[in-house]
């Protein structure tokens, strides 16, 4: 199977090496939403969703599915962003009214044009959630998407996502990343619906997202862990693989050193490999399985490049940055 090398664009979920047959898994909610015809207004769409689904969880998932399946990422707008729209106001009430007006315009533009960057995705999700009787908020922060992000020195505000309140619990949602990815080999966006960024477990979510506030639900998050941790991929989240060791995404070693790796929930080591500098697969030698954890060693040599990415059943699961001592 040919593994295509991809690069991430800001705000869009890409994979450094992506299995070209990455499965699209739709649940019953997604299949219902897939049958929806065109809606003239967001109100009509929200009314249909509340008619078809009764629980808050199902409504929130249906909104995620509809937005991810129907709104395309506007890569051209990413390359040529519009100037921030400024406005004047005389008091706080007028300020909030104008902010709502700008947000409403963004929602309608996204809904009508069927394309947006992350601000449009998050605004539309929040709007539809509120029409469906759900409470949703927009969170802005940093996204960890490329190999070069491993060991980056500082965070930057380059992305946005949502939280939605379901059964008295705030759930994490990144509908932008649920839509698809940018394929550099084709020079275009690829629609590839992924459910893994709806109600994502916080432990996974915050390896790839860091809010501007630096906290979630009052708990402080580690900026160091975010910046220096390994880069994980969709399949890791979907299958709940756990990277036990190394904890750091930065590995400093001398040629000839043996580096110990420990991955949990990976049961068939014969399907685990990494690529060398020539993009040739290298099988894992002498792996040991202990209580659901796979432990093995990789000898660091000149055939390993600046990064090492591990694959399981042809899907990338984790990348580390290699620094020779």
TrEMBL record:
Domain of life: Bacteria
Pfam families: Transglut_core (PF01841)
Transglutaminase-like domain mapped to chain residues: 110-177
One annotated Gene Ontology cellular component of this protein: cytoplasm
SMART domains to which the protein is assigned, alphabetical: TGc
Stored InterPro entries: CAP/Cytokinesis_protein, Papain-like_cys_pep_sf, Transglutaminase-like
PANTHER family in alphabetical order: CYTOKINESIS PROTEIN 3
Official protein name in the record: Transglutaminase
Organism of origin: Flavobacterium geliluteum
């Amino acid at each position: 199977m040919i593994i295509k090398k991809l690069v991430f664009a800001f705000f869009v979920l890409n994979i450094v090496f992506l299995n070209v047959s990455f499965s699209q898994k739709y649940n019953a909610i997604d299949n219902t939403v897939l049958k929806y015809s065109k809606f003239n207004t967001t109100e009509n769409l929200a009314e249909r969703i509340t008619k078809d689904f009764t629980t808050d969880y199902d409504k929130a998932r249906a909104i995620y599915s509809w937005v991810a399946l129907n709104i395309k990422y506007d890569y051209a707008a990413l390359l040529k962003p519009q100037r921030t729209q400024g406005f004047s106001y005389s008091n706080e009430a007028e300020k909030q009214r104008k902010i709502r007006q700008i947000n409403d315009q963004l929602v309608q533009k996204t809904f009508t044009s069927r394309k947006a960057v992350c601000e449009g995705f998050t605004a539309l999700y929040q709007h539809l959630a509120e029409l469906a009787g759900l409470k949703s908020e927009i969170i802005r922060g940093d996204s960890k998407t490329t190999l070069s992000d491993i060991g980056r020195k500082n965070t930057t505000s380059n992305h946005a996502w949502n939280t939605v309140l379901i059964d008295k619990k705030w759930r994490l949602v990144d509908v932008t990343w649920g839509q698809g990815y940018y394929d550099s080999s084709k020079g275009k966006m690829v629609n590839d619906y992924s459910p893994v960024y709806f109600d994502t477990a916080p432990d996974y979510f915050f390896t790839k997202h860091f809010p501007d506030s630096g906290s979630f639900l009052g708990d402080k998050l580690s900026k160091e862990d975010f910046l220096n941790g390994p880069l994980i991929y969709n399949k890791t989240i979907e299958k709940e693989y756990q990277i036990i060791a190394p904890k750091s995404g930065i590995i400093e070693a001398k040629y000839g050193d043996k580096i110990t790796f420990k991955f949990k929930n990976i049961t068939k080591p014969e399907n685990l490999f990494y690529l060398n500098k020539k993009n040739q697969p290298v099988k894992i030698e002498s792996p040991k399985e202990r209580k659901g954890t796979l432990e093995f060693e990789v000898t660091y040599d000149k055939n390993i490049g600046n990064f090492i990415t591990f694959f399981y059943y042809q899907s990338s699961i984790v990348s580390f940055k290699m620094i020779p001592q």
